[in-house]
Design a protein that fits this description.
This protein has about 260 residues and is of the alpha/beta class. The protein has two domains: about 60 residues, no CATH class; about 170 residues, 3-Layer(aba) Sandwich (Rossmann fold). It contains 13 helices and five strands. A five-stranded parallel sheet has the order 2-3-4-1-5. Helix 8 packs antiparallel against helix 9, helix 8 crosses helix 10 and helix 10 runs parallel beside helix 12. The radius of gyration is 24 Å and the shape is elongated.
């Protein structure tokens, strides 16, 4: 009779979509015989057998659709390599993802090779695994997508789509100058995201050069930066090339 009830209970779990709970129910019951947990604690542990793997699966799904090119972790970033710009306290603050909850922006500035993209994608990956939606795109591809949508009379819909992720990652901002049309498209994207969702941007351009980057349109550049920097963490990384550091350590690359 007990086995029939056990089988029926597991079937009920599966009918309710509690597949992880059903699959681990036998081991859960075995574990409970070796402890003296209260009824509330046992119910909590049972719910966790379903929730934890379900969240892990959801996180993997968010990662898959995020467009992030490579899985990166914050733990793999060698903070000691930097010569300035990102103290441990600020690193820890960003790692907490509180800026995503507060819908704040992050700017990683610095020359090529100092780890801007690694930090951005690592934060994006962690956000996905922590329950936030993220989406990665280069600035060049972003404006191309927006211009194409405009040509198809679908710009408003595409801007609405880009407004949905909790965290939007825009890489390599300023690496290529924009046309007038691209400049206004990017401004519209920034305006849509303003105070509605967090963004991380990487750039090798100082803010003083944004007018030049945005087709010498000072008004649009100023309006864009006004929105981006209103709630923003500005991280100006200082280091030798992060990509070359391991080769330099073993003497494979030398500098005079």
């Amino acid at each position: 009779m007990e086995n029939i009830k056990l089988l029926t209970l597991k079937n009920r779990m599966e009918e309710l979509g509690l597949n992880f709970m059903a699959a681990g129910f036998d081991s859960f019951l075995e574990e409970q015989t070796h402890n003296d947990n209260t009824l509330l604690e046992r119910i909590y542990d049972l719910i966790e057998t379903e929730l934890i793997p379900r969240n892990e699966r959801a996180g993997k799904t968010r990662l898959k659709i995020s467009g992030i090119p490579q899985f990166k972790t914050l733990e793999a970033f060698d903070l000691s390599w930097l010569k300035g710009g990102l103290p441990q306290e600020k690193f820890n603050e960003l790692s907490s993802l509180a800026f995503v909850e507060r819908k704040e922006n992050v700017f990683f500035l610095g020359p090529s090779g100092v780890g801007k993209t690694h930090l951005m994608t690592a934060l994006g990956c962690k956000a996905c695994l922590s329950g936030f939606s993220s989406y990665y795109i280069s600035c060049h591809d972003l404006v191309e997508v927006l211009i194409k949508a405009k040509e198809q009379n679908r710009l408003a819909r595409k801007l609405k789509w880009f407004a949905k992720p909790n965290l939007l990652l825009v890489d390599e901002v300023g690496y290529e100058p924009l046309t007038a049309e691209q400049t206004h498209a990017l401004f519209q994207l920034i305006n849509v995201r303003y105070e509605s969702g967090a963004m991380i941007m990487t750039s090798n351009k100082t803010f003083g050069k944004w007018t030049e980057f945005m087709n010498n349109d000072e008004a649009v550049a100023t309006a864009s930066l006004d929105r981006l920097l209103h709630h923003c963490h500005i991280i100006s990384l200082q280091a030798d090339s992060y990509r070359m550091k391991d080769r330099m350590k073993v003497g494979a690359v030398g500098f005079d």
